[in-house]
Design brief:
By secondary structure, the chain is an alpha+beta fold. Helices cover 62% and strands 12% of the residues. The longest helix is centred in the last third of the chain and has 30 residues. This is DUF4376 domain-containing protein.
């Protein structure tokens, strides 16, 4: 019997591949949470990419017309009247939401990279918090 040394994987190779798969899962979960919306001033707002782009566009228009008030839809289609300052506050909250999740994901990936066994990775993932 001959051994193909090029395809022989060590236990550490297997753990490293598993850690990479969990890092991909973290990216997917981060993106899901970013797009899941935020609660701001008692309302649940959508935060998908298109929703954020729409919000930024309205904020730009509102900055040109400081006395402008507009209605913004919540996730359940409730209309909320907002002025420039309220739109900006929502925009800041959305940005902070995304920033928090991006950096938290980075921390999780760094923590997983430092682990040495599949069991340790599984334990970390099962106790993850965002």
């Amino acid at each position: 019997m001959s051994i193909n040394w090029q395809t022989l994987r060590t236990a550490q190779d297997i753990v490293n591949e598993y850690k990479q798969s969990q890092a991909q899962w973290l990216n997917t979960e981060r993106d899901r949470l970013i797009n899941a919306g935020i609660t701001h001033n008692g309302h649940q707002f959508q935060t998908r990419e298109k929703d954020v782009a729409d919000l930024m566009g309205v904020i730009q228009v509102a900055q040109l017309t400081p006395n402008l008030t507009t209605r913004w839809l919540t996730e359940n289609n409730t209309e909320v009247e907002m002025n420039l300052q309220q739109l900006q506050a929502l925009g800041i909250a959305v940005a902070q939401h995304k920033t928090h999740l991006v950096y938290r994901c980075r921390q999780h990936k760094d923590a997983i990279a430092a682990l040495t066994t599949k069991e340790a990775v599984d334990n970390y993932i099962s106790n993850i918090s965002w």
